[in-house]
Amino acid sequence: MAAKEETLFRKKVCADLATIPDCWVESIQQVAIRGTPDLLICIRGKFVGLELKKKGGVVAPLQQYKLDQINKAKGYGAVVTPQNWPEIFSLLKGM
Questions:
Q1: Which of 33, 35, 45, 76 could be stapled to 62 by a disulfide with Cβ–Cβ 3.0 to 4.6 Å?
Q2: What is the pLDDT of residue 1?
Q3: Residue 71 confidence class, pLDDT cut points 50, 70, 90
Q4: Which of 16, 80, 78 has its CA nearest to residue 49?
Q5: CB contact at 8 A, 71 and 77
Q6: Residues 6+ apart with CB under 8 A from 43
């Protein structure tokens, strides 16, 4: 997926999230801190970290570690692709 397609996917995800009541989203630009998920979200008190990847994109070990730590702390951390976004979006709407 070209950079423009990745940007469009990020915008779609953020637009979809904006339709969820009581949802806060912070889009992270990774300049100095590596591994932080692309989107930090709070939905009705539940912490969510989403790492956005193109189809076939590889999750770096540090990214996976941070997602695992979010899940270990009873939040929800996941890798999101255009293919699995509808399923994950449905789950997030139900939080």
A1: 35
A2: 45
A3: very high
A4: 78
A5: yes
A6: 20, 22, 23, 24, 92, 95
Q: How, if at all, do strands 23-27 and 39-43 pair?
A: antiparallel
Residue whose structure tokens are 């399923």: 87
For residues 86 and 28, the model is more confident at 86
Count CB neighbours of 36 within 10 A. 16
Q: Are 55 and 82 in contact (CB under 8 A)?
A: yes
By C-alpha distance, which of 46, 53, 52 is closest to 24?
46
Decide if 80 contacts 89 (C-beta within 8 A): no
What is the model's pLDDT at position 32?
64
Whether the pLDDT of residue 3 is over 70: the answer is: no
